[in-house]
Each structure stands twice: as C-alpha cells, then as structure tokens.
C-alpha cells in the first residue's frame, strides 16, 4: 500500500518526534469514526473523547498531512467573510450566534496548548496591514464590528505605529489583534493527535476511507479494514476527493504557496518584526508572513484555483517577499511548498448532516486555523444532542460555483483578478 509522506516543508523538517502509527488492518467498532486527521478531525476527536465518546480517526496519509500541517500558522479570528456579511446573508439572529463564536477558536487553541502541554511555538499578536485608505477604512469598521461582539484586544495603528511592529514601508496603517498570533501548525496538529491518544482515541495513518456504507449502522471502509460506527464525521476538506459526492459540487480545492528563508540573524529578524507578531495584508489575494521559532521568515501568498501544483513556487512567492522586504534580497530560501484549502462561493464554512449520523465541516476558504478548532467543539456538541450552534453554521446557504465543474476554475480566477485589480487601484 502507498506510504504517503509529508511534503518537504519547513514544518516537516522541524516536526516534534512522533511514534509511528499503524494502518487499519482489521474491523473495529467505535462510537464515532472521524475521517481526516487535520484540525477539524483532531479537534472533533478531542472534544468527543473529553465527553466520553469512543473515537477512531482514519487518516489517508499522516496526521497534519493536509492544510493543517502546511499553513502559514496564523491564528486569525472570525471567518473568511466577516460577521457583517453573515448578518446581511442570514439575518441578525443567526449572525448574533455566529458572531459570538467568531473569537472562540483562538481561545480553544490556547486552552489545548496549555492543557496538553503542546510544544508549537505559540506567540500572541497578529497584524492586519492596510495598503490603501479604503483598506484602512475597512479595518476601522472591522474593529467596531468585532467590539460589538465583545472582542476588545484590538488596536488601530497609523503609519508611524505600524512601522514599530513591521519594517515594511508599503503600509499606511493597520490593526493589531492581541488575541491573534501564530503557531508551528504541524506541531500543533501532532500535539493534538498525542492528546487524542492520551484519552484513548485511536488514530490510523495511511488508512484512507474509500467507501462509506450509509444507513442506521454506517461502516467506513479502508483498503484493508473497516470501522463500524454510530456516527461519522467527514473532515477531509480539500483532500477529500470524491468520497462524499454531495459535498464536492459546492466547494473547490485551491492551492496556496509558502516559502521559508534560511535562519536570519537575530538583528535582521528583530528589525523586520520587532515584537514577533504575524502579519497579513488586506488584499483580496493576500500576503501573509511571520517569523519561526528559529528566526526564519515564512512568507505565503497567492491562490491557484483548482489546486494545480505550480512548477516553481519560489519564483512565484519570492518576488512578493522582496516587494515587502527588499532587505532580504541576499537571503536564501530553504523550503518552498504548496497546500490546498477548500473554497466555497460564499467563503463561509460548509457544515451539515447527511442522514442523521454523518456530519461534516469543511470549506473555511483559507482562513481555518481558528474556525476548525471551533468546528470540532460544535460538532461534538451536535453529537451530544446540543445542535443549536452547529445548526447556525449548517443553515448558512451554499451555492455551486458559476461555470460548473468545467468552468469554475477560470471563472473564479477572473473574479480574483478583478478584486486584485481593485486592490491595486485602491477602489
Ligand atoms: C498553504 C496554506 C496556508 C494557510 N495559512 C493559513 C493561516 O495562516 N491561517 C489560517 O487561519 N488558515 C490558513 N490556511 C487554512 C487552514 O490551514 C485550513 O483551513 C485548515 O487547516 C483546514 O483544516 P482541516 O482539518 O479542515 O483540513 P486539512 O488540514 O486539509 O485535513 C484534512 C485531512 O483529511 C485527510 N483525508 C482526506 N480524505 C481522506 C479520506 N478519504 N480518508 C482519510 N483521510 C482523509 C487528509 O489527508 C488531511 O490530512 C492555510 C492553508 C494552506 C493550504
């Protein structure tokens, strides 16, 4: 059977040591079978185990193989579309519920890290950087909006102030969120997997779910085994493929690329980001970056609709990095990789049930480190019979991408081009 390794990322190279995990080669019985060991699957497993469920996790490759082990590591609050958009889409009552959950994911991560002593270089503080007056105006309303929902660790920054936290002269201002921050994402996933196992959960790696036998007593089949469960949680996100055809029509895998420099000198690292905050700019196709624990700069940006792997990642991302930080022109790039996230048309998460025992959450549209942790909690609540918060997500409407399977990629790329042009021209 194929043994799928991690991509050659900085994260894989600096991962904490983990025990080998077996592939499933027998038939097992469990309360909940979780498909996918990214943050959605692991967070669900952990909340369910803490509530007394028996849990089996099937992972097609390795824990954190997907976006959860490859991302920019930025703890960003709220959702890929903000609460005001949700309010306009679904009305004030549902928006109230979703708005009050929008800052919970970051708290869950911090609780997990503290409770299970996860070594993942957690740092507080995230900056949204504005390149245009329009983006600055948007940050001002975002601050007011978030404060309405009780989030008060926010500071608006003018041009002078933002230069104190990031040495980039492109920004006219920004907003600092002290409940944002950053982590080594793969080590967070590995720590959560260890926590799952410490509570008696079973994780099988190299064990793709290849078929789900639906019905009152569902069975998940892998190439060499099967899991009989009372409930199934589908958490394969952009890597799920066609396992659950109903989910594929309204979402689209997209790639985004990340590079990592060689370790910087202490002085250079401190000059770029003196407080070690992470930064994302406010463009539609945004750049995001931060320092690692060993003082490399991790820089990501851009989107490949349809998730084709680009031939030369460094050639795409390095110019973006040098535009922000020309002072890095002689710095070597040690790692470059790509990862897939799942986009929905509304950019809001796709959550729901199939029948009464298969649950899913996916499609947080590139903004999922916090949401996926919340999703695990909300899924576990639903399986315990408290579905009010789950249903608030499940009722968000979703639509197929224009152009169908054939044309959705060029149509989306065209849309993104239009929004990027607006960013560049500032309207
Ligand atoms: C390069 C990159 C940078 C990003 N940066 C950020 C960031 O800085 N901040 C932020 O908030 N978000 C970021 N994101 C998004 C964020 O990483 C994702 O939203 C989040 O990790 C999704 O978690 P997940 O568990 O739903 O999916 P994944 O982490 O993709 O996990 C899905 C898992 O399911 C497994 N799987 C799939 N199908 C099957 C099957 N049939 N059987 C068994 N297992 C299966 C896969 O192997 C995979 O391990 C980024 C994403 C990428 C790709």
UniProtKB/TrEMBL annotation:
One term under GO cellular component: cytoplasm
Q: What is its EC number?
A: 1.4.3.-
The protein's superkingdom reads: Bacteria
Report if keyword Transferase is assigned.
no
Q: Which residues form the FAD dependent oxidoreductase domain?
A: 31-381
Q: Which UniProt keywords apply?
A: Oxidoreductase
Q: Which GO terms fall under molecular function for this chain's record?
A: oxidoreductase activity
Q: Which Gene3D superfamilies match?
A: D-Amino Acid Oxidase, subunit A, domain 2, FAD/NAD(P)-binding domain
Q: Does the keyword Membrane apply?
A: no
Record protein name field: Gamma-glutamylputrescine oxidoreductase
């Amino acid at each position: 059977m194929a043994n799928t390794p991690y991509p050659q990322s900085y994260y894989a190279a600096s991962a904490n040591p983990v025990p080998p995990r077996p592939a499933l080669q027998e038939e097992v019985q469990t309360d909940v079978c979780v498909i996918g060991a990214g943050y959605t699957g692991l967070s669900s497993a952990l909340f369910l185990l803490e509530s007394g469920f028996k849990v089996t996790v099937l992972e097609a490759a390795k824990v954190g193989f997907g976006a959860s082990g490859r991302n920019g590591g930025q703890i960003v609050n709220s959702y890929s579309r903000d609460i005001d958009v949700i309010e306009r889409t679904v009305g004030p009552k549902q928006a109230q519920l979703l708005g009050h959950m929008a800052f919970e994911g970051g708290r869950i991560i911090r609780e997990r890290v503290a409770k299970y002593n996860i070594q993942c270089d957690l740092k507080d503080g995230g900056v949204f950087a504005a390149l245009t007056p329009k983006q600055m105006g948007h940050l001002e309303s975002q601050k007011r909006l978030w404060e309405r929902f009780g989030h008060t660790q926010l500071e608006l920054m003018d041009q002078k102030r933002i230069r104190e936290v990031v040495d980039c002269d492109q920004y006219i201002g920004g907003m600092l969120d002290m409940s944002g921050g950053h982590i080594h994402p793969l080590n967070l996933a590995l720590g959560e997997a260890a926590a799952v196992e410490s509570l008696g959960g079973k994780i099988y790696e190299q064990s793709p779910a290849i078929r789900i036998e639906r019905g009152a007593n569902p069975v998940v089949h892998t190439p060499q085994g099967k899991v009989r469960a009372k409930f199934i949680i589908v958490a394969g996100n952009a890597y799920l493929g066609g396992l659950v055809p109903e989910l594929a029509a309204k979402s689209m895998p997209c790639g985004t690329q990340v590079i990592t420099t060689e370790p910087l000198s202490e002085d250079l690292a401190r000059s770029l980001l003196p407080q070690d905050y992470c930064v994302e700019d406010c463009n539609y196709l945004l750049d995001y970056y931060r320092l690692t624990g060993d003082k490399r700069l991790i820089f990501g940006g851009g989107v490949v609709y349809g998730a084709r792997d680009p031939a030369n990642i460094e050639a795409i991302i390095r110019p973006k990095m040098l535009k922000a930080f020309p002072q890095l022109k002689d710095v070597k790039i040690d790692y470059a990789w790509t990862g897939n996230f799942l986009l929905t048309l509304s950019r809001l998460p796709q959550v729901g049930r199939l029948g009464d025992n298969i649950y899913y959450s996916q499609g947080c549209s590139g903004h999922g480190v916090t949401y996926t942790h919340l999703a695990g909690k909300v899924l576990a609540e639903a399986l315990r019979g408290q579905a009010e918060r789950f249903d608030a997500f499940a009722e968000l409407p979703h639509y197929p991408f224009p152009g169908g399977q054939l044309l959705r990629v060029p149509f989306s790329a065209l849309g993104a081009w239009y929004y990027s042009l607006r960013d560049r021209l500032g309207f």
